[in-house]
Specification:
The complex is a heterodimer of chains A (129) and B (223). With 129 residues, chain A is an alpha/beta fold. Chain A has helices at 15-27, 39-48, 65-74, 92-100, 113-126; strands at residues 8-11, 33-36, 53-56, 83-87, 105-108. Chain A starts with 7 loop residues before the first strand and ends with a helix. Classes of the chains: A alpha/beta (129), B mainly alpha (223).
């Protein structure tokens, strides 16, 4: 699959942040993206159509980012999808938990366009896409 | 007080009763666990104050970023407008010369570069809107804190009123029964498990202060 056609899922309970991430992804060449307002909606979308990359917040209602990450890694059909956490959670223990739970990367908010671009590229290189 | 400056029996009883009621109220508060609860509630106020200061700081920074971005973008647009006016005049005066001298090409290059700079500023303006997410999370926590505080104060009020009524009945000439108050389980002010944005990072070692520290930590974990 060409990079331009890769499908991203942006998970964040704040529509402003979803829009910001979506716009940046578009600017750096990834225009194909869908959104979910929490982990539960994201999981349902992930199970109903294929996605190549998940960008997820952590602190969300219903199902938080850690729970979503665990569900993705526990599901055989989803476990290989890269999951980049983009969150305001700045505690070291949260970063360690994310890493140990299988996050592909971790960005702390507020972030720059360059940071998001760098992390997405790095993860894609790592998974060979 | 009577004319000689002493207290009459009735007045003296009144002061004794008020003193007793105050004592009972104090004891009841302690018995109910409200002394601890009030202490907790008061203890949570500096946290709310810090969070609100963070909101104020972040919204101020976002406004600055947006205004700076708008200033720079407007300057770029003015630069383009001036260039276009000059170019139009040059083309009207000597169309061939304007193109042959490379002035036209130079202007077109400048249009591209200026548009790119304006685009960078617009991206900055867009990114500045992240304050909505960050402050929203903090405000949610303050609202939760205020709700907890409100609930505790209402509980305190209800219990105190019940206690006052019972105490007033007890103060009647009939033999006063000790006031019975049901202890209420002390609920801590509710806080969410996740910390949200790091409001105060100075002097803290449990939080990162930026992306560089996140990368460092992940690298140390083998990422």
């Amino acid at each position: 699959m060409s990079v331009e056609n890769m499908k991203f899922l942006i998970v964040d309970d704040f529509s402003t942040m979803r829009r910001i991430i979506r716009n940046i992804l578009k600017e750096i060449g990834y225009a194909n993206a869908d959104e979910a307002e929490d982990g539960q909606v994201a999981l349902s979308k992930l199970k109903s159509s294929p996605f190549d990359f998940v960008v997820s917040d952590i602190n969300m209602p219903n199902m938080n980012g850690f729970q979503l990450l665990q569900q993705i890694r526990a599901d055989d059909s989803l476990r290989t999808i890269p999951v980049l956490m983009v969150t305001a959670e700045a505690r070291k223990e949260d970063i360690v938990t994310a890493a140990q739970s299988g996050a592909s990367g971790y960005i702390v908010k507020p972030f720059t366009k360059a940071t998001l671009e760098e992390k997405v590229q790095k993860i894609l290189q790592k998974v060979g896409k | 007080m009577n004319r000689e400056g002493g207290m009459g029996n009735e007045e003296g009883d009144l002061y004794v009763n008020v003193g007793r009621l105050t004592r009972q109220l104090h004891d009841a508060l302690r018995e109910l666990g409200y002394d601890v609860k009030l202490e907790n509630a008061v203890g949570s106020l500096p946290d709310a104050r810090n969070r609100l200061s963070y909101v104020s700081r972040l919204t101020g920074q976002a406004a600055e970023k947006v205004l700076n971005g708008v200033d720079r973008t407007k300057a770029e647009l003015q630069h383009l407008t001036d260039g276009a006016t000059e170019m139009a005049a040059a083309l009207r005066a000597d169309p061939v010369g304007a193109v042959a001298s490379g002035r036209m090409m130079g202007f077109l290059d400048e249009v591209g570069a200026s548009a790119s700079r304006a685009d960078t500023q617009l991206t900055e303006i867009m990114l500045a809107q992240d304050f909505h997410d960050l402050t929203g999370q903090v405000i949610r926590k303050v609202v939760t804190l205020a709700q907890g505080l409100e609930a505790q104060l209402v509980q305190l009020l209800v219990q105190t009123r019940a206690h006052e009524a019972a105490a007033a009945r007890a103060a009647e000439p009939v033999r006063a029964e000790p006031v019975r108050v049901e202890p209420v389980r002390a609920e801590p002010v509710r806080t969410e498990a996740l910390a949200g944005p790091a409001v105060m990072t100075a002097g803290r070692t449990d939080v990162v202060s930026g992306q560089a520290q996140v990368d460092e930590l992940l690298e140390s974990l083998g990422f």
